[in-house]
Amino acid sequence: MPPFDSISLPLIDVSCLLHHDSDVAQNELIRTTSNAILDALAQYGAFQCITATSNNFNIFDTAELLLHTSKTDGIGAVKRGGFVRGYIGMGHESGGAALEVKEGFSYGDSESCASSNKLTGENIFPPSLSANEKEKAQDYYERCCAVARAISQGLAIALPDNPLLQQFSSENDARLAKAISLLRVFKYFPYSAANSDNAPHSTSAAIPHVDRLGSSPHTDWGYLTLIQSNEAGLQIASTPTVVPETVWRTVEPIPGAFIVNGGDYLSVLTHGRILSPLHRVVNLDNSFRTSMVFFYYPPYDTKVPAEFDLELLNESGESSKAVERLKHLSLFQDQRSDKSKGRKLDLKTVCFGDYISSKWESVSRDY
Ligand SMILES: O=C(O)CCC(=O)C(=O)O
Ligand SMILES: [Fe+2]
After folding, report:
1. How many whole angstroms separate alpha carbon 233 and alpha carbon 242?
2. Of all helices (H) and strands (E), which one includes residue 27?
3. Mean pLDDT computed over 36-58
4. Which residues are within 8 A (CB) of 335 and not within 5 positions of it... i.e. 6 or more apart?
5. pLDDT tens digits, 129-170
6. Boundaries of each Fe2OG dioxygenase domain copy (predicted)?
7. How far is Cα 281 from Cα 258, in angstroms, rounded to an integer?
8. Which residues, other chains included, contact 13 with Cβ-Cβ below 8 Å and sequence gap of 6+?
9. Of 100, 186, 187, 220, which is best to mutate to test ligand 1, by the most ligand atoms within 8 angstroms of its C-beta?
10. Cα 330 to middle of ligand 2, angstroms
């Protein structure tokens, strides 16, 4: 693996957006913070995010226990039309052709019930996980929702003319977002772990000989992604697609901080002003890496505004570079391994939740 430079992302403390009050000095800080968020997401599509209580949460022991007890209890995943909860063994998901050398655990809102829509349903926690650890995992979900909502409120302040951004930062929409957003615990292994002899539990014997990666190059489909990791390995591309000139830069994790990525849907709603960065995960030094990846979504029933049309946007004088970038987002790509089966949905005719459900189905892999 060649050496990679690091990318230096802005570090933003979003505490003032988490604890609103109407005092005037606070308002100035809120405005400055909101503009800093917008600037970072417009320039890099990402930033490092801290809050006053960043160092109070050590989630990695809980992450380890979630994965460990899933394996010892032998729990698998429940997959239902794009809804995924529970333990995902190595090789069972990929955003591209590579074998992603990682295992994962997927969970969401603890109050979510199956009847609401395709993205809601009960979590599958391993029976031998202690009540205390389960509570820590659930509290962490709440914390991620609160921080993501604070950031979305900042964006609504920085972009007052965008009606959907205003709406998504409201209490009602934040509640709907919380019901369908998703937390993924990932453990990335040294690539040698994918050789069938020493493959971890639940990996089927015959894994095809394809490229190994931690996570294939992709953009995140949703609104915002919050990532917390104990090791480097996440990299952001210098170009919107993988081309020979692409330079990959490593994001160095700051203990306690979230790395925040703009998502494809947010990029769409801001006509490409906010970037959804192309990123991947590589194993830099044969080590294990754990990350908590929180995908924050808009409400299930959200529809893209009727005026959203890539061709029309081009003609309407939006910066063509920004519009050009939108076409390459993973949200619009067909990520199925077998593209001949079924059909790809059109984001202009179906709501966000139905569309994302079909995206999750498309990255499921069975070897
Ligand atoms: O584990 C990470 O650092 C990021 C993973 C990621 O990009 C994803 O799951 O979408
Ligand atoms: Fe991602």
Report:
1. 17
2. helix 24-43
3. 93
4. 95, 96, 218, 359, 362, 363
5. 999 999 999 999 999 999 999 999 999 999 999 999 999 999
6. 178-298
7. 16
8. 33, 49, 50, 51, 52
9. 186
10. 10
3-class DSSP state of 366 = coil
Amino acid at 360: W
Q: In this structure, which ligand is nearest to the CA of 215?
A: 1
Q: Atom of ligand 1 at shortest distance to CA of 227?
A: 3
Q: Is the ipTM of this complex over 0.95?
A: yes
- Which stretches of 151-277 are assigned E, i.e. beta strand? 182-188, 212-213, 215-218, 224-229, 234-237, 248-250, 258-262
What pLDDT band is residue 191 in, cutting at 50, 70 and 90? confident
The HSE-up count of residue 149 (CA atoms within 13 Å, CB side) is 24
Residue 91: the pLDDT is: 76
Question: What pairs with residue 48 in β-bridges?
Answer: 11, 259
Residue 243 structure tokens: 């081309």
Instruction: Please compute, for residue 243, the number of CA atoms within 13 A of its CA located in the half-sphere on the CB side.
Output: 6
pTM of the model: 0.92
Q: How far apart are CA 303 and CA 312, in angstroms?
A: 17
Cβ atoms within 10 Å of 255's Cβ, excluding its own: 11
pLDDT band at 322 (very low <50, low <70, confident <90, very high): confident
Of 196, 251, 210, which Cα lies nearest the Cα of 228? 251
**Which of 250, 260, 279 is the pocket-test mutation for ligand 1 (most atoms within 8 Å of CB)?**
279
Q: Which structural domains are found in the chain, ordered by start?
A: 5-362 (2.60.120.330)
More confident site: 42 or 191: 42
Cα(185) to centroid(ligand 1), Å: 9
Q: 282: part of which helix (H) or strand (E)?
A: none
DSSP assignment string, 206-240: ------EESEEEE---SSEEEEEESS--EEEESSS
Nearest CA to ligand 1 atom 3: 234
pLDDT of residue 202: 43
CA distance 47 to 140: 20
